[in-house]
Specification:
259 residues; alpha/beta; 2-enoyl-CoA Hydratase, Chain A, domain 1; 2 domains; binds 4-(N,N-dimethylamino)cinnamoyl-COA
Length: 259
């Protein structure tokens, strides 16, 4: 598929795919087609055995300044209902391979929600995170009230959602929203480094482990533990488990194949 608003590379680096949001003049505002393109690229990468980790990024000035306000301005509630964007957003959450958001500049509204839907966030020192929807007399609609609250706690989430204020990368780091803050020229390299640390692991174990960590966010402890146990047993069905343990015993590096 030819994409208009993203650049997608399945072999950006060995085992690492990259999605670059590419509407720079509009600060990567997320219009409906761009979201469809992200969904399509993620589905494609999820089915590609060579891809073990996915990075989503923007550019230095903006990861994404939110959903496209100009596209939403005249919409009615029924229009929004019929468009059913949640089907697209849900697909991001359902991606089985790990996704890292590499964020610089504005990461606002739907952009912040997109980053939070990813599994990890690596940020440049210039990143600014916010849910400014309240200033447009709307509110976060793609998980912002829930994921932000779970990540940073009620006090800061409430303040950000009710006032629309932005927080810096350093504040986001202190609050637990992101994994790393690095100088602007390094944020993509740092995301690649993290992706590589994941890509050398067993894809089967990574998939089961990601699923299990995510389960912690939508289940009680007992249900989560039960789920974890099943996935733990499942690891022992893989050739990678034998390879990992055998490599340890033989004092060599494992070679994981995803089988
Ligand atoms: N939408 C459309 N265009 C945008 C935009 C946006 N979100 N953000 C920026 N732009 C455009 C600007 O209009 C401007 O275009 P021109 O005027 O040059 O044609 C260009 O990008 C450059 O922006 P500025 O001139 O404003 O640049 P500044 O450096 O002065 O300011 C800014 C940067 C990021 C502070 C400012 O642009 C800004 O406040 N932008 C809007 C931020 C915002 O309110 N974001 C939240 C949008 S609402 C849903 C899922 C998600 C959502 C909704 C539903 N469903 C699943 C149902 C999400 C909603 C939102 O994100």
């Amino acid at each position: 598929m030819n994409y208009e608003f993203i650049i997608a590379e399945s072999a950006f680096q060995p085992h690492i795919a990259l999605i670059r949001l590419n509407r720079p003049k509009e600060l990567n505002a997320l219009n409906l087609q761009l979201m469809q393109e992200i969904k399509h690229a993620l589905l494609t990468f999820d089915q590609d055995d060579n891809v073990r980790c996915i990075i989503i990024t923007g550019n230095e000035r903006a990861f994404a300044a939110g959903a496209d306000i100009k596209q939403m301005e005249s919409k009615t509630a029924i229009d929004m209902l019929k468009i059913d964007q949640f089907e697209t957003w849900d697909q991001i959450r359902k991606t089985k391979k790990p996704i890292i958001a590499a964020v610089s500049g504005f990461c606002l509204g739907g952009g912040c929600e997109l980053a939070m839907t990813c599994d990890m966030i690596v940020a440049s020192e210039t990143a600014k995170f916010g849910q400014p929807e309240i200033k447009l007399a709307i509110m976060p609609g793609a998980g912002g009230t829930q994921r932000l609250s779970k990540a940073v706690g009620k006090a800061l989430a409430m303040e950000m959602v009710l006032t629309g204020k932005f927080i810096s990368a350093e504040e986001a780091m202190d609050a637990g929203l992101i994994n790393r803050v690095v100088p602007e020229e390094l944020y993509l390299d740092e995301a690649i480094k993290l992706a590589n640390e994941i890509a050398v692991q067993s894809p089967v174990a990574v998939r089961l482990a990601k699923e299990s960590v995510l389960k912690a966010f939508d289940s009680g402890l007992q249900e989560g533990l039960h789920f974890e146990r099943k996935n733990f047993y499942m690891c022992f069905a893989s050739e990678d488990q034998k390879e990992g343990m055998n490599a340890f015993v033989e004092k060599r590096k494992p070679n994981f194949t995803g089988k």
